[in-house]
Amino acid sequence: MKTNKTEARIYNFQEDIETLFQDWEKESKRNLIDYKFHVYRVWNLCLKLANINESNDQELFRILAITSAFHDSEYFIYRNWDYLEPSNIKLKNYLESIGLSHQSNLASLCLMNHHLMKVYRGPHFRVVESFRKADLIDFPGIRRHGIDPYFLKQLRIEYPYMNFRIIVWWETIKQFLKSPFSGLPMLRKNPYLLTIKD
Ligand SMILES: [Fe+2]
């Protein structure tokens, strides 16, 4: 099949992502570059899968960048394996601080369901499921979920992913061996749905 190379538009600078990472690196004194590359890959893949760009939905374009930045943040910054809920709280606080709390529900559904071990069926299906698939394409990276191989290749040239994969495999195996029954609390069998307090 012929590849349409003009489709390989990669978004490689987003202000919220840049500011958040600057703050996080300063605060944690960690080099978060491999996580940051993961964030940019997930964001770009999600945009592609959900067919969103800066012109057709500017606000969602930004919300997805922010959600990508926060989605595994509490693990990579603080090495907390039970990271979904604390990452989600910080995501909601951030959205509130920039006047976008009306998008909190959608952002939380994306973040809280991104390790759901089956197809997500629920509110905002298209975006939430695209976010879940985008993360899966990046890790473990077994399936492409319809993403064009040329686009994926370009994305991985722009944001190299080998270090990230080695780190995540290594840390996951270590954690699993340490506590095989409860060591990976971020994996979800059932979808997270909004509660009354959301
Ligand atoms: Fe992730």
The largest sheet is: none
Helix and strand element order:
HHHHHHHHH
Bound compounds, please? fe (ii) ion
Unreliable segments of 5+ consecutive residues: none
What is the count of distinct domains? 1
In angstroms, what separates the terminal alpha carbons? 45 Å
The proportion of residues forming helix, as a percent range, comes to 55-70%
Strand content: under 5%
Organism: Leptospira bouyouniensis
Protein name: Phosphohydrolase
Features:
single chain, 198 residues, mainly alpha, 9 helices, 58% helix, globular
Model description:
The structure is a single chain. The protein is an all-alpha fold and 198 residues long. It is built from 9 helices and no strands. It has helices spanning 15-28, 33-50, 58-70, 73-78, 84-97, 104-112, 125-138, 149-158, 162-178. Helix 3 runs antiparallel to helix 5 (84-97) and helix 3 (58-70) crosses helix 6. The chain is globular. Fe (ii) ion binds at residues 38, 42, 71-72, 135. This is Phosphohydrolase.
